[in-house]
Design brief:
alpha/beta, TIM Barrel, Immunoglobulin-like, five-stranded parallel β-sheet, 22 helices, about 30% helix, binds alpha-D-glucopyranose, EC 3.2.1.21, hydrolase
């Protein structure tokens, strides 16, 4: 793929680039081998975000020049102190880079990234990252380990909450926006931070959705599904990439030369920094491809992985490897050069304390405009899954019974990666509805973990029975998604379904609000609960944002970035699937009998569950209706150097303003490899007043038609293509065909 990578230096002015390059080469020439190796060593300062590893004394390490970057520093003062040791007391005086996982906010916590992706609005992702960077850079942080760009097709994997869902294109657009938001136009500015596209590559394909499990991908699947969001991040100029824990082709990503040096660097043109994940260099031993830390260090430096997060492999082995002639010192030099370039573009050589300003921090964190931004993103991230008889929006004058521990749980709204977020910053749904609804009664109904006592149940039933409508908050605790939080069962934890069942029995209409970090198997709820709103884990403005939707101040426009399965048995179930040689057709044959001669028994399906998911990729309802009144292509045939324009006219046929996410899918029905039945290639949010219509135009080029062909190259193969336009992957309104000709 012709990825247009922008290196960090290429993003600088020529003067600044020359000055940084000169400073870096001068430093490099002055450093001893030991000092160079020290730069490549990264340690956690105050707390761990992974397995137990060696406990080098960080202060002494910085003083001795044995550490070049730190993560998980416990605050601005601590960061300043470590920087003073590095700059004013170590022999080389080279400043540290301070890193932290600022995933969806530093202190002003935004919706989890999967929620942001559900807005299908890259501007929301960019806004969130921009605010996060502004707050992080004011908190002594230079480098965030975000965005996660892992494509996730398995909701059992807890880290689907951390990225942008199952689709390569949507993930790419959102990831570009996040990189732009974090890095801005100038990494030396005091409100930008270095971003890090992670985890390179294929981490989201962990077998059975089990965290840190084996990944076994074809090269085609790697290139077609998991690589595109990294390519998009490189195009956005991301300044660092993080190794994944998993193997690719049975070789751990950190020590995989084909993956790092050959694919990421040589083929995709990435010139900047590769950092390991937590102890991922050391884990080459656990994977069984390194007999000891020395072998692990050799494999990783030769693969092109630069900075060693906490394993100590480089710190303890790299000098010896060079002195023994096993590793060429040039490999060390190039890794150190990449790190020094990062320190240069961050402006740390000019002012190592630029990011340590308590006054600026106190002014920026949790400011009113940041909270308002968090509320806007949280509003746009919500997905209306169903709304029978237009039960929603509610009226503030109604007697509303609010039920569920999650409705009043501040900490769970922050998600698993909460940086400096604090529960006391959160406005819960209960707090907001108490203020905005006169006739609100609250009954906990169930604890945050889903457990229900008889008393809780009885009180909830009574409260709901007396109300005009019930709003029931159900879902997962923040700790049930995120890293090391795989779940094999995807129904609502605990007795939440039983609680909903009892409340539905009261005949009072029930609205379920989902607070969760992943797609859930809510088939029963879908059948029995008239309205379901997916709110994800919405951050500090959870209450106002969800109330804005429930009470009709905001018409929900979110769309699912990831398929919801009927049941775990369907997984992996995703929209851009291959057709197979025996695609299922509708049948009324009773498959449990063995009907001799019934040819249509022998098709790709289950005996006991449907193939179709519960909710498809791109699904989402609105308080208004939209009609696609015209879909047209500006040509029936195109050549390789021509563009194709797709015009779509959408009308708001309802009685209130709303936003339709127009989705354009492509199908290449006959090619040298089996191609997906549909692939998202464009989308657009269209805001329309009642009765208003608009035409949106999408331009497609040959690059959009290209794929990893059987000839093992990216190319668009001549032949017929389908353009599918619609409201969701399973709600296609129009199909047009065109031909690519030689
Ligand atoms: C964790 C995560 C990674 C994170 C790193 C530092 O194990 O895998 O995403 O950035 O360690 O916290």
């Amino acid at each position: 793929m012709d990825t247009q990578t922008q290196s960090l230096l290429a993003q600088c002015s020529s003067e600044r680039r020359a000055a940084i390059e000169q400073r870096v080469e001068t430093l490099l020439s002055e450093l001893t081998l030991e000092q160079k190796v020290g730069q490549l060593n990264q340690l956690n300062a105050d707390f761990a975000t992974g397995t137990a590893v060696g406990d080098m004394d960080v202060e002494q390490g910085v003083l001795d020049g044995d550490i070049g970057s730190v993560l998980n520093v416990g605050g601005l003062d601590e960061a300043r102190r470590l920087q003073e040791l590095a700059v004013e007391e170590s022999d080389h005086g080279i400043p540290l880079v301070v890193a932290f996982d600022v995933i969806h906010g530093q202190r002003t916590i935004f919706p989890i990234p999967l929620g942001e992706a559900a807005s299908w609005n890259p501007e929301m992702a960019e806004l969130s990252a921009r605010v996060a960077a502004t707050e992080a850079a004011a908190s002594g942080i230079h480098w965030t380990f975000a965005p996660s760009v892992d494509v996730g097709r398995d909701p059992r994997w807890g880290r689907v909450m951390e990225a942008a869902g199952e689709d390569p294109y949507l993930s790419g657009e959102v990831s570009k926006a996040r990189v732009r938001g974090f890095q801005g136009d100038d990494l030396a500015a005091d409100d930008t931070v270095l971003a890090c596209a992670k985890h390179y590559v294929g981490y989201g394909a962990a077998e059975a959705g089990r965290e840190y499990n084996t990944v076994d991908l074809s090269e085609t699947a790697l290139r077609e599904v998991h690589l595109p969001p990294f390519e998009a991040s490189l195009e956005a100029g991301v300044g660092s990439v993080m190794n994944a824990f998993n193997v690719y082709d049975r070789i751990p990503a950190s020590g995989n030369e084909a993956l790092v040096d050959e694919l990421l660097r040589d083929e995709l043109g990435f010139e900047d920094l590769v950092v390991s994940d937590w102890n991922s260099f050391g884990e080459l031993m656990q994977h069984g491809v390194a007999g000891d830390l020395r072998e692990a260090a050799r494999a990783c430096i030769e693969a092109g992985s630069d900075v060693d997060m906490v394993s100590g492999a480089y710190a303890t082995e790299l000098v010896g490897l060079v002195e023994d002639g096993v590793v060429d010192e040039k490999l060390v030099d190039q890794a150190v050069r990449r790190l020094l370039v990062v320190k240069g573009v961050l402006g740390l050589f000019e002012d190592p304390y630029r990011y340590f300003d308590e006054d600026r921090k106190s002014k920026r964190l949790l400011s009113d405009d940041h909270r308002e931004a968090a509320r806007e993103v949280a509003r746009e991230s919500q997905v209306l899954l169903k709304n029978e008889d237009n039960l929603l929006p509610l009226d503030e004058t109604e007697e509303i019974a609010l039920v569920g521990g999650l409705a009043d749980s501040a900490t769970d709204m922050l998600g698993a990666w909460r940086a400096e977020g604090r529960p006391e910053d959160v406005t819960t749904l209960k707090t907001t509805l108490d203020e905005r609804v006169g006739g609100l009664t609250y009954a906990e109904g169930c604890d945050r973990d889903g457990s229900v006592t008889d008393d809780q149940l009885a009180a909830a039933v009574d409260a709901v029975a007396d109300a005009d409508v019930a709003v029931v908050a159900v879902g997962e605790r923040y700790s049930q998604s995120g890293e090391a939080a795989s779940r094999a069962h995807l129904d609502l934890p605990g007795d939440q379904r039983a609680l909903l069942d009892a409340l539905v029995e009261t005949e009072t209409p029930v609205v379920a609000v989902l607070f969760n970090g992943r797609p859930l198997a809510i088939d029963w709820e879908t059948e029995h609960v008239p309205a379901i709103l997916e709110a994800w884990l919405p951050g500090v403005e959870a209450g106002p944002a969800v109330a804005d939707v429930l009470l009709g101040d905001h018409n929900p426009s979110g769309r699912l970035p990831m398929t919801f399965p009927v049941t775990e048995g369907q997984i992996p179930v995703y929209y851009n699937r291959l057709q197979t040689g025996r695609p299922p057709e509708e049948t009324d044959v009773d498959l449990t009998e063995f009907p001799q001669g019934q040819a249509d028994k022998y098709l790709s399906r289950y005996l006991d569950i449907p193939n179709e998911p519960l909710y498809a990729f791109g699904h989402g309802e609105s308080y208004t209706e939209f009609a696609y009144t015209d879909v047209s292509l500006d040509a029936m045939t195109v050549t390789a150097d021509e563009t194709l324009t797709v015009d779509v006219t959408v009308e708001n046929t309802g009685d209130r303003a709303g936003t339709e996410v127009v989705q354009v899918y492509l199908r290449d029905p006959v090619a040298s490899r089996a191609r997906p039945v549909q692939e998202l290639v464009r989308f657009e949010n269209v805001n329309l007043d009642a009765g208003e219509s608009a035409t949106v135009s999408f331009e497609l080029t040959t690059s959009d038609l290209s794929f990893w062909t059987a000839a093992e190259e990216y190319a668009a193969e001549p032949g017929e293509f389908e353009i599918q336009v619609g409201h969701a992957a399973d709600d296609i309104i129009a199909v047009e065909t065109f031909e690519l000709v030689e």
